[in-house]
Amino acid sequence: SWSDFEDKILYQLLVFLQPPPKHSFRLELYDGMHLPERCSNICVVQECTCSRMMMGDMLCFLHPSDNNQRSPLLSTLCTGSYLDVEKIACWVQNLVQSAWEHLPQWHDWQLTVLPSARSCRVLLTGPSEVQLCAVLVFAVQQGSP
Length: 145
Known about the structure:
Elements (H helix, E strand, L loop, with lengths): L1 E4 L2 E9 L6 E5 L14 E5 L25 H6 E2 L2 E2 L1 H16 L9 E5 L5 E6 L5 E9 L6
Parallel strand pairs: 2-9
Antiparallel strand pairs: 1-2, 3-4, 5-6, 7-8, 8-9
């Protein structure tokens, strides 16, 4: 969505996070009924994608126990096994800032990453002091693979 806000054009973008390959998001409810207010109850679960049924203590040949390492990206975006919205916001803010210099507009527009612990907020100031503010809000889609 977009709107006018304090002489700026404000864009709000909903960014759906997707789990990495062989992983899924699981929403954990409080007391089995209430939805959590924060991202801290979204568990990242490693999934086995084997088509064979495992019997007894036989290990999956695609996921041996010594290959149970977490990806660096999950370690960056999670606290334990749970998504951490503050870590996600910081990571996206750094990505936006480092990618900005590779865009052709970076000479004409100034990018300022605004402080935010739960989203990515950027202010773009262009020619004639035109200002655009973009807020990236993070979400996961319940029931998606």
